[in-house]
Amino acid sequence: MSLPLHPEATPGAVPNLLFDRFRFVLNETSHPGNVGSAARAIKTMGFGRLVLAAPKAGADVLRDPEAVALASGADDVLAAALVVPDLESALKGVSWAVALSARTREYGPPNAEPRVSAALAGQHAAAGEAVAFVFGSERTGLANADVERCNALVHIPANPAYSSLNLSQAVQLIAYEARLACLDAETSGAAAAGQDALATRDDVEGMLSHLERALVELDFLDPDNPKKLMTRLRRLFAKSHLEREEVNILRGISKHILERKTRR
Ligand code: SAH
Question: Which PANTHER family match (predicted)?
């Protein structure tokens, strides 16, 4: 939304505004072939924004022969992919981020099935927000800290005895579900709704660090032994789909606590 993604992309590469609000983020991908296949996977479903956070091969991955070969007719999406140094940069301006994990997690954002999660992501996009699907690396997947940066978690309910899909195949499956969600939003007219007042991820992150400082001041949070408090609060806020105004109220409370403490 606020980040000019793919400044070098041909205007109109993704002519549909709704589809253009989705970005597919590959974190620390090792195999150039998977990057090319992911470009193809998203283009076949009508999307075009591929973001590579800290790819192992660096920005050269965009020109890697294996990546180019597997992108096939999606060479434009591959060439326009944005390479950024870390996941935080990849999520700039995103309001709704969905982590894809081959493993179920004890902590972190609420877990949902691909179809349910894609439908919810579609609603956010239809409301004018930038949405991201975040995929982990081939060998280690997403770290817990990466998953916690997201608002939702999706585990594709595959064979429990062998549930780890190839990265680009996981991208394909989610891109398909996101396509169905977009087509549904278009036919129901939801996509006509403009920007709404939902808080962005950046707003919520800013509020959380403000709140954390206030909780430390109150001696409610021990910075040397934080336990899972911030993780739990992050999860709580992820569930409540905060509006910008609500974030401002929470920031106001934290500000007051900090001011009163320093006055004493
Ligand atoms: N060995 C890794 C798996 C990596 S697969 C691990 O144990 O986590 C590479 C990426 O593909 C994952 O990080 C995830 O984003 C996606 N992926 C693979 N299988 C998936 C599944 N069943 N559900 C959701 N995402 C999956």
Answer: TRNA (CYTIDINE_URIDINE-2'-O-)-METHYLTRANSFERASE TRMJ, TRNA/RRNA METHYLTRANSFERASE
